[in-house]
TrEMBL record:
This is HTH cro/C1-type domain-containing protein. Residues 17-75 form the HTH cro/C1-type domain. One of its GO terms (molecular function) is DNA binding. Pfam families: HTH_31 (PF13560).
């Protein structure tokens, strides 16, 4: 994974979070409901990355997106990314 915070907490970028939500087809409102976080918290994360959230909220957001089939990819020469698990597996 990419952008490790101190103590090993994963912190995806704003672009990764926005892409992950878009790829799952969820609105900000639906993702907020799925995570139990506020709409403004999701907006803040998509503007500034998970590092602007509390560690607990960042972890919750990442866990829910991963549960929906998102894999956060490590940065390479082209930068970090996301992958969505196919319906077949």
């Amino acid at each position: 994974m990419v952008n490790m915070r101190p103590h090993g907490i994963f912190s995806p970028t704003a672009q990764q979070l926005t892409a992950a939500r878009a790829a799952t087809g969820l609105s900000i409102q639906k993702l907020a409901e799925a995570t139990g976080l506020g709409v403004n918290t999701i907006r803040r994360a998509e503007a500034g990355g998970a590092q602007v959230l509390t560690p607990v909220n960042a972890q919750r957001l990442v866990e829910v997106l991963q549960g929906l089939g998102v894999t956060f990819l490590e940065a390479d020469a082209n930068g970090p990314g996301v992958r969505i698990r196919s319906a077949n597996g």
